[in-house]
# Entry
Amino acid sequence: MTQIIINLNNKEEETFVETFLKKMKISFEKNEDDFELTDEMKMVIDEALKQDRSQSVDAFESLKKISEKYGI
# Structure
């Protein structure tokens, strides 16, 4: 089996290549180990880290409140 490594610059390129390979019926395997945060992702994380955590609730408490409010 031959292995080809393709380095893509963004999600748009990734989607294009995946679609192309699927249309050509070429099997492929994605390696998710090389994940890198984009500048936008880093900015969102930095902003979240600056938030006051004293009023935060965990995911379970948040889901409980949503369930009680909307009956789901």
The chain has one domain: 11-70. DSSP finds three helices and no strands in the chain.
